[in-house]
Model the fold of this input.
Amino acid sequence: MKLHKFLMAVALVAGAATMTGCDDDFDRPPVIVPEATIEANTTILELKEQYWQGTTSDFLTTIGTTDTGDHVIIGGRVVSSDEDGNIYQRIVLEDETSSIFVRIYSTKLFESYQYGQEVRIDVTGLLIGTYRGLMMIGVDYNGSVGGMDLNVFQQRAQVNGLPDKAAIPQYVTTISDIKSYLTDQTQLMTWQSRLITLENVEFVGGGSEMFGTPGAANYTTRQLKDAEGNTLDISTSNKCTFVNLLMPKGTGTVNAILSYYGSNWQLVFSDPETDCTGFTWVDTPEKPDVPADGGDGSAETPFTVQAVQAGADGTGKWVTGYIVGFIPDKYYDQAVFGTEGAINTNILLAPAADVTDVAACIPVALVGDLRNAVGLGGHPENLGKQVTIYGDLEKYFGQPGLKNTSVYAWGDKGGETPDVPDTPTGNVLYSALGETDATIDWDIDAATGVWSWKEYSGKHYLNASAFGNDAAIGVTTYAFSPVIDLTAAKSAKMTFDHAAKFQTTLRTLCSAAVREDGATDWTELAIPTWPEAGSWTFVSAGEIDLSAYAGKKIQVGFKYGSSTDGADTWEIKNLKITE
Done:
C-alpha cells in the first residue's frame, strides 16, 4: 500500500534526470508503460452473477466461456496490498461494478501488481467458488478455493498502464447500509470484496487495544463503530506486520476491503496507517512492572487488580478485588457500574468499591456455580463486596482478565485451592466429529441446507446455520450419529466442543439430543456450558449424563432451530461418549 513511496521515488529520479540531462553524458533508461494485449469482455459483477450460489453452503465450479465461445476476461484495478501480510497470497481486483479476491500461491505480489494498477485476467478454466461464503477465483485445494501457482497467474494476467490510485472506484457507504445488504443476495454479491470508505467512525478500544494479538494463532477480531452505535468487525492476521499496532483514537475515515466470513461482514486493512485518516495515533505503551505489593497469586497473598493490569500472568492464580459492575455485551467500553440489567456471566473487579472507570478494572468470566453465587444478576447485593477468585490470567474482552474460574472466597484472601482434576480414565465407548476427520458418517439433513461438515485451517467441525437461507427459517432439523452400542456399559457420559460467535436464538432453539435405536422422537439434553458470544472460541460443553441409556443402543445428535428472531451459526466437534 506504499504507493506514495513508489511515486516519490519516480519523481526524484525524474527530477535528477532533468537537472543533468543537458550534459547528455549518460543515457536515461526509458519509462516502460506496460500495455495489455487482451481486453476485458466481462465485468466482475457479470462473472459473479453467472456463478453465484449464495453463502449458505460453499461451492466450487469451473469458469467456462462466453456465449460466443470466447474466453472470459475480466479487468479491474488492484485495491489491495500484501506488503504488510494481512492480505496474504491474494489480490483484490475491482472494476466499476464489483470486486473479487483472486488467490495466488505467492508472496510479495505488491511488487508486480501494484495498488491502483489495472490488471486483466483470462479466467476461463480457473475455478470460482466460496470459502465460508466469500466468493473467490483460484484453483482446487482440498475441495475449496486455493491459490494458483504464480507462473499460472502470470500466463493469464496482464498489467495495463502504471498505478493510478485516483482511478480506483470510490464507494463511500455507512455501516447501517452495509448491514442491510446481508439480507439482500444481490447486494451481498455486489458488495463483497469492495474497497469501501466509511466516514465518522471510531475504533472500539482505540488507543488501548492493538489491531492483533501478538504471538497468537489465526486472526483477531476488533470492531469499528459509528455515531449511532452500529458496529462492523475488523479481522487482522496475528502474523501481519501491524499486529502490535495500537488502534487509533477518535473519529475519522477508513478505507478497507469489505470481506465476508461465515455469515457476516468483516473489514480487512492492507495498511491501517495509510488506510485510516483523521484519527489520533498513540504509541504502544511499554508493559509496566508488576507492583511489589501486588501479591503473588497465592490464596494468602492473591494478585491485586493493579498487578493483573501490569502483566501478572499464570494459570491457577487467586485474584482479589471489589465487584463494581459487569459487561452486558461483547464490548468492554459498554461496562455497567451498578446492577441494572445485570447478568451472571461476568463481573468487573476494581481496586476499590467506588471505582467507576473501566480502565481501572479487570473483567472476570464466571462459570459453573460461580455464576449463581457471585454474579450480580442473581445477587445484586454483591455489588461493592470484596471477593477473591481462583482462575487463569488471560485476555478477556481484549483486556487483562481472569478466566476459567472455579472457586471463590469473600474477603481479601482465597480459600482452599482446588485440585487439578484427573484426566478421565473411563473407557471411550464412542467418538466422532474429530477435528482431524476429513469425512464423517453422521446423517446430515441435506434437504434444508443447514448442516455441513466444514474445515478451517486444517481443522474440521460440524456446522449448522440457516443464516441467509430463507427456506430454512423456522425449520427444526437434526444431525445425528449411527447407532451406538452401549449394551455392555454400566454408565455413560457425553462431551463435545462447540463455538458460536453470534447468539440470538441458539440457546433456546438448539440442543443436544438422544434417542433409543428404532425410536422416532428425540429427547433433548441440557448443555451444561455454552460458548460465550463474540468470538469463534471453542469450549467444552461439559459432561452430559447418558447413564439412563447404559445397556441400550442409541443415537446421539444435535437439534438446530431458527426463527425470524435469529438464525445463528453453531460449530461442533470432538464428541466423545465415555463410561
